[in-house]
Amino acid sequence: MTQTDLFRFTTFGALLHYLRRRARLTQRELAIAVGYSEAHISRLERDQRLPDLTTLAALFIPTLELEDDPEAAARLMELAAAARGETLAGRTLTMSHTVSEETSEEIGSIQAPPGLPALYVQRAELRELRQQLKQTRALQVCGMPGVGKTTLAAALAAAWPSDQPVFWLTLTPGVTTDVDAVVRQLALFVLGQGEQSVLPLVQQRNEGTLPPLDQQLNVLCAALNSIPCLLCFDQAQSISANAEVLALLQHLIAATRTPLIIISRERLTLQQTGTFTLHGMRAVDAAQLFDLLNLNLPQPIQAQVIARTQGNPMLLRLIGGQIQQVQPPLEQWLDRLAQQPQVAAYLIETTLSTIPPELRPALNLLAVADMPLNLYDEALVELAQAVLGPLPWDLLIEELTRRQLIDQPAQAQLPLLLRDHIYSTLVARLDDRRALHKLIAEWYEHIGDDPLIIARHYARAQQHQTATALLEHNLEQLINRGQSNATTALVDDLLLHARRHDVALRPTLLTLRGDLLVHTLRGDEAEANYREALGLVHTPQLRASVTWRLVNSLLQRGLVHEAHELCSQVLAELRPEDRLLRGELLAAQSKALLMLSQFDAALAAADATLQIAKTLVGSLAFVGDRFRAAAGGTRAIILQIKRQPDQALQQWREVISAAERAGLQRSLGRALANIGNIYNEYGQLDLALQTYNRALLCLRAVGDSYALARLLHGKAMLHQYRMEWDAALADNAESCAIKRQIGDVQGRANSLNQRATILINLGQLHAAHELIQQVLVETQSTGEQWAQHTYLDTLALTELLLGQHTQAQQRLEQLLKQPIVVQDQRLHTFVVNHLALAHAVQGHSEQARALLEQLDAGDGEVSLEHRVIQLGISALTADARTLDAQAQAISADAQQAGFPLWASAATRIAAQPRPLAPATLPALIFAHAAADDMPPLANPTNPHAQSVGWRYTMVER
């Protein structure tokens, strides 16, 4: 073969493939001859593995019959060096000396440290490795295959001081793993540094007249102590069972001062060595590698790849070469990553192929577990021995740790992809896999406190009823921990099985699913689950159990009439001794009656619930507390509506006590939100904000979207009082969006009403008028009369501001005739205030004064509005001195009470020239900013548009 022909081959793999075919060898035959696997040869020929120059020279060239073809051999070596980013210059060591006037040459090849990869990422661990080596001197760098041990050590060698040479030896089975080979390589390295004392070791080795090994080592160690250098032994797991080489390394550690690094997949039994355990790349380094690989992946996909590979750079490179060819959705491909052929082959070749059979049961157990296992736990050992048979447990722990498969036996967990791959191989042994799941469930039930994990293992062990009962029993705990969505996913799996094989379990699972979702953004699914479950049960008791849940779901979605009717029907079917079911239904009925503004009936139902709670003691005490929390909340809201804040606060505190005893985080959060409303309403705004923030933590933790939206409504109101428009806009917008998503018709209407009044404050009167008309149309059938009357009061206010004075007056006069307005002191005060203003703008000042003087305005915000309207009417006729004094008093009281809104209104009125024109009064009192001061809303009726808050306290029931 001519030199020109040789230079047609530009890669090592291509030339190796040609030369193997020329030698009439198969890949298998070449692999056997050089001690490699067939897969390794295949990767070398595809340029997917870097060739080892020492092995190439020692084994490949003779096997390929290149001794008589020096040009081909030279070209093969040249391409191999190029593939590694190296050069052959200086790689052949030639020594000459004169003995008895004769010259002899000693020639030997020594290995240089490997070059850094073309796409090299410097890792923070390099600095840590350097520091630890200074402290320890002899260090084992251990880790799973592919985590970058060799690259990290090579980077250390590349940065080693130039006046201190680096010895590097890759320990290759059958090539460099016997004592003689290691000593020869060390001797050649030392000789290359000019230490002639070791020359006899090289010379006599060639002559076959070596002294005993201990004498060789004495000479070698003495020479090493005279040379500042670094010794690196790579792939040291290949000598883990080689006592002679281990003894040689131990002697080097003990007899020299030379820094020494041993790179291994396994922890070797060597004394006086530290261990540097290397894991995968940190996220920032892995992201840099992605950039070098030109992988323009979406950030969530990139984070998922890093998480699933645990930053293993070899796996990242392997996956990076494939993922660009994958058709979307990438998430599905990543979910099956451990089963992808290339990844599976890598895991098998690098890790699983070397694991002895006696270790496989332990690996299967770790693969089935989705949490760390304490391998020292006696209960786990006992259960494992019963399922897996007698196992040498102490040896298993030692072997798993030595092979870097686990870090801490007390927190044993396999690398994620390895775990997934092993688990997938158990699919053909379903009985074994289910037995292991049952083992894990029983162990974790013994020591753990996460019912979701335990139930998941019981479900995978085909113990569906046990899993369902466990979830049902721990429902409140799962919700309080924020695990509703994860638990719902498990319930969906159980339901899939039940629909096919276990019809009797369906109602329980449907009810359980509804309970998990009812207060979340998926409340519509909860309602559908309850309705389906109700169609599957037939006894009055089972119907009642599902009905009270469905009723609460309906109430949250504003379907009050249907909820009340269902309660009445099912209550009539129950027996007096069905105390628990009656209590649940009465608590739900009290809420329905409250929303229908039937306050006396609502109180009666709540009190009946509390009477049942008193009878529940002992093991049923927690149910009694649940009833106290529910019925007490109804009573507290009615006390708020009736303007009895102190009694309402006391009732809410009792609700909090009951909720804490029963572990009801949702009820606790709701109670705190309502207490915040009371503080808000009476001007204690700092205290209100603190309480709201406490409630937010509770409600976000349990995923109670319904109550969260109402709390945001209250916070928007607070910011409105303070004229903090941006914060009010943000909270109101989020509240509207959540209520729309969960289907809370009435709650969304309340927040849209809140938005209409802030539009008034900002002078956007036509938008406010249009919005409140829309709200009234959408809520005609909701049945909450109190809210409807509040919306009508807002509509009348917009009419006053738009100059429709007669229409506003007539509407307000009609409202004053409604029983609910008469009964609700606060709403009654607002309506009278606005009616007085309607008379004033039409020139009927005396009638306006008479209405206001007959009114007991109470305190808080409603009283301040009352006084500001009185001030405005006085400005029509009063002298400046009297008016200024009144305005200053109102402004001071409003600021002290935490209502800058009304302080601003009073100041504005006092600043106007007098006498005032009557028609200007509504805008002076309510429009706190001109329309030009704020950008108009793009679509004021769109619930997702930026929006504003509401001045009037709207108690969300």
Shape: elongated
What is the total tally of β strands?
Answer: 7
Largest sheet: 5 strands, parallel
Radius of gyration: 41 Å
Termini gap: 93 Å
- Tell me, rounded to a whole number, the average pLDDT: 85
Question: Which structural class fits the helix and strand makeup?
Answer: mainly alpha
Biggest sheet, spatial arrangement of strands: 4-5-6-3-7
SS strand fraction: under 5%
Unreliable stretches covering 5 or more consecutive residues: 92-107, 930-957
Helix content: 55-70%
Number of helices: 49
Describe the protein.
It is a single chain. Strand 5 (230-234), helix 12 (243-255) and strand 6 form a beta-alpha-beta unit. The protein has a five-stranded parallel β-sheet with strand order 4-5-6-3-7, sandwiched between helices. It is built from 49 helices and seven strands. By secondary structure, the chain is mainly alpha-helical. Helix 3 packs across helix 4 and helix 29 (540-556) runs antiparallel to helix 30 (560-573). The relative contact order is 0.04.
From the structure above, extract its key features.
mainly alpha, 957 residues, 7 strands, disordered C terminus, five-stranded parallel β-sheet, two-stranded antiparallel sheet, single chain
Short summary of the structure?
The protein is mainly α and 957 residues long. It has 49 helices and seven strands.
Write the layout of secondary structure elements.
Blueprint (H helix, E strand, L loop, with lengths): L2 H4 L5 H11 L4 H8 L3 H8 L7 H11 L6 H14 L8 E8 L2 E8 L15 H12 L1 E5 L6 H10 L7 E5 L8 H14 L6 H9 L5 H13 L4 E5 L8 H13 L4 E5 L9 E4 L5 H10 L6 H11 L3 H11 L6 H6 L5 H10 L9 H9 L9 H11 L4 H10 L13 H10 L4 H18 L3 H10 L3 H10 L1 H6 L3 H18 L4 H12 L5 H12 L5 H17 L3 H14 L5 H17 L3 H16 L6 H21 L3 H18 L2 H17 L3 H18 L2 H17 L3 H18 L2 H17 L3 H14 L6 H17 L3 H11 L3 H5 L1 H17 L3 H9 L6 H15 L5 H18 L2 H11 L10 H6 L31
Parallel strand pairs: 3-6, 3-7, 4-5, 5-6
Antiparallel strand pairs: 1-2
